[in-house]
Amino acid sequence: MPSHESLYSTDYGFFVASTRGYRGLRNRFRTRTLIKIIRPAREEKILEIGCNGGSLVSQISRFSDYVVGIDVNKDVVERLKSDKIQVMSATHLEFKENDFDKVCAFEVIEHIPAIGKVFVEVHRVLKPKGEFIVSFPFEFIRGQAALFDAIRVFKNPLYARKLHVHRLTPKKIREIVRNVPFRIKSCTVKFIPHPAFLMTLEKTDD
Predict the structure, then answer these.
(1) pLDDT for residue 98 is more than 90
(2) Is pLDDT at 206 greater than 80 in this prediction?
(3) Dist. CA 2–CA 162, nearest whole Å
(4) Burial 69-106, CB ≥16 within 10 A → b, else e
């Protein structure tokens, strides 16, 4: 099996971001749902972590004047040729402190081994009382929600557990941010389109 980073190459990226067939229908439903969740405003600065094909970044840009997306998938980002999307790791955000009103990461953090660093970095770049809006799949077994992707892209169901390196729950998120100054504003289960936990965390004073 390849290294974790190498999983996120052209084949995986463009399959996940596809606008055709079931995947395309799913992505259109997902984007409409997430826009309602984010509630972007014109004056807000918004960062999407794990933006992949950039469809959500594009839609947020209709409502907000400053939107940026980042992704580790260099192949996809280079092909997009968008000044709104950069190659960047969520564990090392190349932005100044107190820069964003909102940061969002939808079904991304379960893919990141050093998940604690993500929350530390997001806290750093958020403005005071800024929001981190995050979702992760409702899984009984780690990798369950990635099984279709693993079979379709890698022809091997075992890759599901390489894609999802964590099985997350709200309790685990609370444990991860125990020493990071966030307040849990909300925690629900949403269908986007499959069941996922959705949490909104607010940056509090250090």
Answers:
(1) yes
(2) no
(3) 9
(4) bbbbbebbbeebebebbeebbbbebebeeebbbbbbbb
Residue 130: closest CA among 18, 56, 57, 205: 205
pTM here?
A: 0.91
Interior CA angle at 163 toward 34 and 86, to 5°? 55
Percent of the chain at pLDDT > 90 equals: 72
φ/ψ bin of 62: left (φ > 0), alpha (ψ from -120 to 50), beta (otherwise):
alpha
Q: How far apart are CA 51 and CA 53, in angstroms?
A: 6
Q: Which two tokens stand for residue 1?
A: 């099996």
Mean pLDDT of the chain: 90
- Can you tell me which residue has the tokens 């260099």? 74
Reduced 3-state DSSP string for the chain: CCCCHHHCCHHHHHHHCCCCHHHHHHHHHHHHHHHHHHCCCCCCEEEEECCCCCHHHHHHCCCCCEEEEEECCHHHHHHHCCCCEEECCCCCCCCCCCCEEEEEEECCHHHCCCHHHHHHHHHHHEEEEEEEEEEEECCCCCCHHHHHHHHHHHCCHHHHHHHCCCCCCHHHHHHHCCCCCEEEEEEEEEECCCEEEEEEEEECCC
Task: Please check whether residue 99 is in contact with residue 172, taking contact to mean a CB–CB distance below 8 angstroms.
Answer: no
